[in-house]
Design goal:
70% helix; 490 residues; 21 helices
Length: 490
């Protein structure tokens, strides 16, 4: 079923789940997207070797399916009675990826999160389709329309992609479930207490993951990713990835949690909270250091600058950030060898940026070939290998700079949709955020995530982006009058 029509249809259903105002229409779109996505995937991998174990053990496959259905049903009942449990469950399952082979490649999928999204969709959609009147919060704004347009455009542009399979997997594994996650999280009646509970869950998870990273570093043994294992044997340092497949995505998660925790510390009212927050940050910082993820360090610093601007002074935050940038540029100019960079040497630049220079250059070249509509959704890796005569090991799925990847795959049309989406996200999250610590934390975390995507892959393929946007959307509905006394006291 590698045909564009079903993929476009499921993309449009996910887009409708974001912007439809009628509750029953929105519920139908959500349920349709939830059911159609796995059907498309099933046809996509029907003839692949990856499902051979299921054919060989049908009873085991059936038992697994029954257990999954029962788990989803139980969670759906819980979320229908206690909607506030949904973001807590989502926070608890955000980091956990399960390596699954499909369509000839291995994808690291958030299977526990998929169960939560499926249950939340059923809990939301079924009562509304049955005609029950439920209170509705919010309405589709510019951000929702920007997300919907990008989803629809991605599905349409997959129709002429040279790598339709990758585009299909991105839609089914990431865009559809995460769009449903956004729609669900944005409609939860968020409170400051719920925000603190979700932060507590994320901090506990981060500490546990850092503990795994410490064990990996002490034993010099990684649990996942043969490529990182091989590179550790060739380098002077040892990178850890904990239970993540990629050290950079692990570092991104730690940086986001550290920013949320830093916001809580900056607006803390008790000395004990400051001490506890500082100690937790020290532990998480030690875990982040072991990732050796330069993109995560950069994202963390940018997020801290945003927090400083909202907590104290925008002017001083800009001055300090500008001074740090000048110092960094001067350091590279004076001592380029310290960062393994020879000015004017492209090979040196590529080595200093861990291969990003050539990937970005190749992405720009692909954009020049088809500047309006691009090469098609998901086509970067295949077209890069063809244009650069690179091996499969050399090319990656993206240029490690999201705007360049989008420009190469989707042309100026897709790039415009992406820029509109990012701008709408910033406007939604930053408007009035300085008066509310929780909203300031979400805005800073989203800024750090966007900064990370300038240096690494995965923007809308990361559930953190959708979750932060959804939580920020829900928090934007908080009555300002109820929060002003607390903000003034802080």
């Amino acid at each position: 079923m590698d045909a564009p029509v079903p993929l476009i249809l499921v993309s449009l259903l996910a887009a409708g789940a974001l912007v439809l105002r009628n509750p029953r229409g929105q519920a139908a779109a959500m349920l349709g997207a939830l059911l159609l996505a796995p059907i498309i995937l099933g046809f996509h991998i029907a003839d692949s070797d990856q499902i051979q174990p299921l054919r060989d053990h049908p009873a085991l496959a059936a038992a697994g399916g029954v257990l999954a259905v029962l788990a989803v049903a139980a969670l759906a009942v819980l979320f229908a009675k206690r909607p506030v449990w949904l973001p807590v469950a989502a926070a608890a399952t955000l980091p956990f990826r399960v390596p699954i082979a499909s369509g000839g490649s291995t994808a690291n999928l958030l299977v526990p999160l998929y169960l939560v999204v499926s249950a939340g969709t059923l809990a939301y959609a079924v009562p509304r389709l049955l005609g029950e009147e439920r209170p509705e919060r919010g309405r589709a704004g510019v951000l929702e329309w920007a997300l919907a347009v990008y989803l629809a455009l991605y599905g349409i542009q997959a129709s002429y992609s040279d790598d339709f399979g990758r585009a299909l997997e991105n839609v089914v594994f990431f865009y559809v479930p995460f769009a449903l996650l956004f729609a669900l999280v944005a409609r939860v009646p968020w409170t400051p207490r719920l925000a603190r509970v979700c932060l507590g869950v994320l901090v506990v998870l981060a500490l546990a993951l850092v503990g795994v990273g410490f064990v990996e570093y002490a034993t010099r043994h990684l649990f996942l990713n043969p490529k990182v294992i091989a590179s550790n044997q060739l380098e002077d340092y040892f990178r850890v990835n904990s239970l993540f497949f990629d050290p950079n995505i692990y570092g991104r998660f730690l940086a986001i949690v550290m920013l949320l925790l830093s916001a809580w510390l900056l607006w803390a009212r008790r000395q004990r909270e400051v001490v506890v927050g500082a100690l937790l940050l020290v532990v998480l910082w030690a875990g982040l250091v072991l990732t050796f993820s330069q993109s995560s360090f950069t994202a963390l610093l940018i997020g801290l600058a945003v927090l400083g601007a909202m907590r104290w002074s925008v002017r001083w935050a800009l001055l300090l950030s500008g001074a740090a940038l000048v110092v960094a540029i001067a350091f590279v100019a004076i001592a380029p060898g310290a960062v393994h960079l020879e000015l004017g040497n492209s090979k040196s630049a590529d080595k200093a940026t861990s291969g990003r220079y050539d990937l970005i250059k190749g992405g720009v070249d692909l954009f020049r070939e088809d500047p309006v509509v691009g090469k098609g959704s998901g086509a970067f890796a295949r077209d890069y290998r063809r244009a650069q005569h690179a091996s499969a090991e050399r090319a990656t799925s993206a240029s490690h700079t999201i705007p360049v990847t989008i420009a190469a795959e989707q042309g100026a049309i897709g790039l415009a949709a992406y820029l509109a989406l990012v701008l709408a996200g910033f406007l939604r999250l930053f408007r009035g955020a300085r008066r509310m610590p929780e909203r300031a934390a979400v805005a800073a975390a989203f800024t750090a995530l966007v900064a990370h995507t300038m240096l690494y892959a995965a923007f809308l393929e990361d559930p953190l982006a959708w979750t932060l946007l959804g939580a920020g959307t829900a928090m934007a509905l908080w009555p300002s009058a109820e929060r002003e006394p607390a903000a003034a006291e802080a």
